[in-house]
Amino acid sequence: MKRIGIVSYNIYANFTNYGSALQSWALNQSISKLGYFPVLIDYCPDILLNINPLDPFNNSWDKDEETKKMIDLSMPSIIENYNKFEAFYSNQFNRSKSYNRINFNDSTNEVDSYVCGSDTIFSPDEFGLDDGYLANYSHMVNNSISYAASFGDPHFSDVQFIELNKKLKNFKALGIRENLMIDYVKSQVNVPVHRVIDPTLLLKPEEYDRITCPNRLIEQEYVLYYSRRYNPIMEKYVEDLAKEKNLKIVEISLRAQNVNKGHIMFYHAGVEEFLSLVKHASFVVTNSFHGMIFSVQFKKEFVVFSRALCDTKIVELLKIFGIEDRLLLNGSESYKPINWERVSSNIEKERQQSIDFLSKSLKLL
User: How far apart are CA 109 and CA 112, in angstroms?
Assistant: First the structure.
C-alpha cells in the first residue's frame, strides 16, 4: 500500500487550532478511504521553528496589557488545551518522526509521496513560501500534489511571484481552496489545477462521530461563542443574542475575565470537545473559518464575523453554501433562515467533485 505523507499547518503553530487539526484528520481519513496509507508528517516550517505555543503572548496579534492579563489568566487552560492537541495528533494519526529543513530528506524512509494541504500554506504573508509546503525539497519535486492549499488574502512582491512560479512547478496536480488564484496558477503550470473544498467537507457529518465526545458537555441550552481574535462588536452581539433567546454563553477564547459576566469559558477544550460543543449548540457566533464549517456540517444556526486575512475564504465558501448573508461586519445586518436541504445539496455536489480530483491526483504519484 502506497504511503502518502500529509504536509500541512497543524502540529506547529502560534496557537493550537481546531481547524488545522480537523482539516488534517479529514484529509487523512479521505486518503485512507481511497486505498492509501496516510502519514501525518510532523514537519515544522522555518517560520515556526522558534515559536512556543505555551508562550502565547509573544505569538498574539495584540500586544497590549489587557491581552497579556487575559493570557496570564488563561494559562492553565492553554496548557490543558495544548496537551489535548498533542494527544490528538499522536492518537488519531500515523504520525511521523519530527522533521524540519535540516532532516526533512529523511522522511523518504516513512512515506512514498506527498500531499501538501490544506490551510493557508501557500500564503506568502503567513509562511513565506515555505519549501515543505510548496514541495521544494528534492524528494518532493514531481512526487507531490496539493489538496485545498490556500493563499489566504495574499500580498506578493515581484520577487515572491518569481519564487512562487518556480515552486508551483514542483507539483503533479494542484487542488486550490479558493478561486482567487486559480487562473494565475493555471497560467504557470501544465498540470491539473482545480478549486476544491476544504478537507473537513469531504466527510459527512456522521463521520465525525468517532472523534466527538459522546456526551453533552453543557446541560443548559447555549450559544457557542468561538473567537479567534477579540472583536468587541461580536462580543456585544453574542451577549444580546443570548439575552434575547435566553441562552447561556459558552465561550472559546482567551478572554478569561468573561467568566465574571457569566460566560462558561472553554479554552481548555480539545478537538473532541470542540466538536461536541458545536454539535449541541443552539446557535454559534464565530469569526473562525472552521467554526463556520462545522456549524454548517452540524446544521446549526450561526453567524460568522469578518476577520482580517480570512474574508476571502469565508466569502467564497458562503457562496458555495448559498448563505452569503451569514457574514456580518457590524452585527446589525439581517439574514434569512437557512435552507438546509439546499445547502446540503450544494456541499454534496462539491464533495463529489473534490473527491474525484483527489482520487485522480493521487494516481499521478
Answer: 8
